[in-house]
Please model this.
Amino acid sequence: MTPDDIIRVRLRQQRLGPEKCATPAETVAWLGAVQAQDFPAAKWALGLRTRGATDASVEDAFNRGAILRTHVMRPTWHFVAPADIRSVLALTGPRVHAVNAHRYRELGLDRRLLSRSHAALTRALEGGQYLTRAELAERLVKNRIPAAGQALAYILMHAELEGLICSGPRRGKQFTYALLEERVPRGKALPRDDALAAWALRYFTGHGPAQLEDFAWWSGLTLADARRGLEAAARHLVSEVCSGKTYWFSVSPVTGSRAAPKALLLSIYDEYTIAYRDRRVLGEKRYVERLLSMGNALTAALVLDGKVVGTWKRAITRDALEVAISPFRPLRKEEREAFRAAAESYGAFLGVPRVTLQ
Model:
């Protein structure tokens, strides 16, 4: 397997090639989870991978509960499928709690206070209520629970990680919370080893070829648990070695080349860049070190034929989209035209009639 093979298979498996998912919910289920603390960017991440999707159709799927947004890994918000949320939280919740433990103590969020907060949140949301963060803060304060600033953020995150609350529909531009029990009926729980295997298979199918360390990074699991999951899923996967590293995936390498350059405007925190600990194969050879040095500063990426060749920014008004690109190198005419077409696709997704590329 060559680095180019890895790129070609990833583009296909991440549904960034011609093959797309049918709905936003199918896209989320295919990938397992999609990082979503930047909500507009996360909607575009789904739009890139979903046939005929628009910003409005992704928003509708979210509001209907076909996709949920909750703290589930690393720790940050992710889109996750309703059918997966409980099994994933059972695996990842304890890990995120461990990361948060010091902050819980600093904020005085001991076990008793968190138990009281869970009871107050349940009373506030039961009966199909959808409340904003500010409204929940008021309810907590009425129950003599400190709910200012970071304390509120960590109380709500703790409740999400415990599977008590999850996203509700948006109210205008505001997010709401709901009781998970009312949003998603409880199903049969998977044994832990089966859940590890299922999560590993989902990752390597939707993100492969990838390494064990990539899966551990993405999922937030310990390396030992990540290895257990991979070992259990291995019979459904194939592995190949590239540059001395073992990559796992679910399909054979894609051969052949594309006559015209394929350009993508990826969202900040897109799964194509954020889901791998080792991002070396994502860069053109002469820019690999620059790419690696950016770390998590690699935000909205310009991707050409699977390689990151720069970054981009956007400015949106009601009737116009302006895309400013910052390539690492001068672009050839046909490459720039490919990015112009990508910007127009983004404008169509947003429903914006005028698009300019700078």
